[in-house]
Amino acid sequence: MATNNNNNENNNGKMSVEEAGRKGGEATSNNHDKEFYQEIGQKGGEATSENHDKEFYQEIGEKGGEARSRQNSNDNNSNSNNNNSR
């Protein structure tokens, strides 16, 4: 992704949404510790579990397994190609 360092010039002195998000994330990171992120992650997990059923978790688990399988296949192909070039 190409970044544009002239966002303020191109947007009449206004910050882009991307830049605002990045700066906000950096400020949050500077102001909070590990425990803060653990707490909001816990709250998010609890809210998700209250709003979704067993089938939701089965579906995302299946998607994660498929993605991991593709990643492992790609890793294995890369490794065999690297071994063949030696």
Automatic annotation (TrEMBL):
Disordered: annotated segments: 1-86
InterPro entries in alphabetical order: Stress-induced_KGG_rpt, Stress/Virulence-Domain
Pfam families associated with the record: KGG
Basic and acidic residues bias: start-end ranges: 16-37, 49-69
Compositional bias annotation for Low complexity: 1-12, 72-86
Cited PANTHER family: CONIDIATION-SPECIFIC PROTEIN 10 (EUROFUNG) (PTHR36569:SF5), PTHR36569
Protein name: General stress protein
